């Protein structure tokens, strides 16, 4: 059974582009990013790991401590990825989405 989690976090205004990293399966996860107007990040997670809200909250907080989140909608499809893989994929997606900002 899949569990759905939603988080809303403060964000900075930034010009980003849509991004997709990872793939669903083999203990990995897929992260998709779309730009949003405003000052919030919306994170929508579908996970096959029931009762994982605390783990997800901790990973998101660790990422926020290192990276200022851009205003975006992030959709994550998780099939039992480890916290290290979760963090890697989210950071990769943010970096890819922010590439437009870096090249401007």
UniProtKB/TrEMBL annotation:
Gene Ontology MF term list: acyl carrier activity
GO cellular component: cytoplasm
Chief subcellular location: cytoplasm
Family: Belongs to the MdcC family.
Modifications made to the protein after synthesis: Covalently binds the prosthetic group of malonate decarboxylase.
InterPro entries tied to this protein: Mal_deCO2ase/Cit_lyase_ACP, Malonate_deCO2ase_dsu
TM region(s), chain numbering: none
Subcellular location: Cytoplasm
Protein name, entry field: Malonate decarboxylase acyl carrier protein
Role: Subunit of malonate decarboxylase, it is an acyl carrier protein to which acetyl and malonyl thioester residues are bound via a 2'-(5''-phosphoribosyl)-3'-dephospho-CoA prosthetic group and turn over during the catalytic mechanism.
Domain of life, per lineage: Bacteria
O-(phosphoribosyl dephospho-coenzyme A)serine modifications at: 26
Keyword Acetylation included in the entry's annotation: no
């Amino acid at each position: 059974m899949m569990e759905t989690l939603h988080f809303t976090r403060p964000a900075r205004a930034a010009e980003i582009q849509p991004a997709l990293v990872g793939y669903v399966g083999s203990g990995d996860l897929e992260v998709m990013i779309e730009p949003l107007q405003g000052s919030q990040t919306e994170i929508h997670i579908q996970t096959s790991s029931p009762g994982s809200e605390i783990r997800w909250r901790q990973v998101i907080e660790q990422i926020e401590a290192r990276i200022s989140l851009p205003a975006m909608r992030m959709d994550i499809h998780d099939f039992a990825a480890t916290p290290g893989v979760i963090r890697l994929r989210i950071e990769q997606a943010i970096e890819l989405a922010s590439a437009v900002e870096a090249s401007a």
